[in-house]
Write a structure and sequence with these properties.
By secondary structure, the protein is of the alpha/beta class. It folds into two domains: 2-121, 3-Layer(aba) Sandwich (Rossmann fold); 127-220, Winged helix-like DNA-binding domain superfamily/Winged helix DNA-binding domain (Arc Repressor Mutant, subunit A, Orthogonal Bundle). Helix content is 41%, strand content 22%. The chain has a five-stranded parallel beta sheet, with helices on both faces. It has a four-stranded antiparallel beta sheet with strand order 6-7-8-9, with helices on one face. Helix 6 packs across helix 8. The mean pLDDT is 87.
């Protein structure tokens, strides 16, 4: 599932993106109304999380133009500090599907996202599986061959992305961007995290699922004879 976050507060935006990616969503971000409208009108997203107070154009105008000019029906959840009835009604009149007042718990936002997605396109796949490896995106439980595995937050993010793209190769630079955006710690960070992930999901078992494709990147796939 691909989500667009439009929020001008950098800290809030980073926290939302990290939490949703940890839950297995693919997240794009914009920090002003015009950039958000351009992305929402030209790219495919399963849902928009949209702040009301934005530079450029506000969230109400963005949503209205998305509906009326771009003719997009992408579900929209609005975020705002305004909690008056008239503000909520304005959000719904502009085309929003749900409305969440700040401050809010991350778990409530995820619950609302899931509810909106169920209404608009049916229940999303929330349990990933490759071979005998499973990852429940709701409980964050990972298991292989019935054995519960313990991963750190970065390991969980890497695993979610690899499982969602399985059996395809994920280029190193794409994986780094998914994890850290433009702020990759250093050239060895991804390699170190991949090594730690292998120690947990592959080393105790008879065959490997996580494979390095030299010169390209990584993929998670069950191949009897390796790669």
């Amino acid at each position: 599932m691909r989500i667009l976050l439009v929020e001008d507060n950098r800290d809030i935006l980073a926290n939302l993106a990290d939490f949703l990616e940890l839950k297995g969503y693919s997240v794009d971000c914009a920090q002003d109304g015009l950039s958000g409208l351009h992305l929402a009108a030209t790219e495919h997203y399963d849902l928009l999380v949209l702040d009301v107070m934005l530079p450029g154009i506000d969230g109400y105008s963005l949503c209205k133009r998305l509906r009326e000019d771009a003719r997009r029906t992408t579900p929209v959840i609005m975020l705002t500090a305004r909690d008056q009835l008239d503000d909520r009604l304005q959000g719904f009149r502009s085309g929003a599907d749900d409305y969440l007042v700040k401050p809010f718990a991350m778990s409530e936002l995820v619950a609302r996202i899931e509810a909106v997605l169920r209404r608009t396109q049916g229940s999303a796949q929330r349990c990933l599986q490759v071979g005998d490896l499973t990852y429940d995106l709701d409980t964050l439980e990972v298991s292989r061959a019935g054995r519960l595995l313990k991963l750190n937050p970065v390991g969980l993010k890497i695993l979610a992305v690899l499982m969602q793209r399985s059996p395809h190769v994920l280029r190193r630079e794409v994986l780094e961007e998914a994890l850290w955006g433009d702020n990759c710690p250093d050239s060895d960070s991804l390699r170190s995290h991949i090594h730690q992930l292998r120690q947990v999901i592959d080393k105790p078992f008879s065959h490997a699922l996580l494979h390095t494709v030299h010169g390209l990147g990584y993929r998670l796939v069950e191949i009897a004879d390796g790669v």
